[in-house]
Amino acid sequence: MPQITVDYSHPSEDAFDFDGFTRALHEAVVEIAAAKPEACKTMIRQDNLSAYGYADRLDGAHALVRVSIGLLPGRTEEVKGRLTEATLELLGKYIAPQDGVTLHASAEVRELDASYRKFDR
Q: Which homologous superfamily does the CATH classification assign to the domain defined by 3-111?
């Protein structure tokens, strides 16, 4: 915990400072949600098959980025909202604008299910 997933589509790859973003996001999760730094884990996945509305998905005019943060239960709605807003601000900071590309970014903070378990080796 927290379990963070970043899904992004082309063409945002070249404009996305992944290292800077994940470091800043981990710092925000520690500060806002009282997580431990060593507990922050982020998986970044590229999706080449995303579509936006009726646009030709191969024209590269739309970039999609979605961040999902899973936390153990117990955070208030205010804390989850602050973390979501901080995540969106960081996306704006760490993804450079690209000519002719509209960035569609979203974020959510959700509670991990009671069945959540993990192990470290």
A: Macrophage Migration Inhibitory Factor (3.30.429.10)
Chain centroid to CA 12: how far? Answer: 13
**pTM to 2 decimals?**
0.92
Residue 53 burial class via C-beta count within 10 angstroms: exposed 0-12, middle 13-18, buried 19 and up: exposed
Residue 3 phi, psi (nearest 5): -100, 115
* 112 Cα distance to chain centroid: 16
Spans of all domains in the chain: 3-111
For every residue of 80-104, which 3-state class applies, written as one string?
Answer: HHHHHHHHHHHHHHHECCCCCCEEE
53-73 pLDDT tens trace: 888 777 888 999 999 999 999
Query: What are the Cα distances from residue 47, in Å, to 11, 16, 26, 121?
Result: 10, 14, 23, 29
Percent of the chain at pLDDT exceeding 90: 76
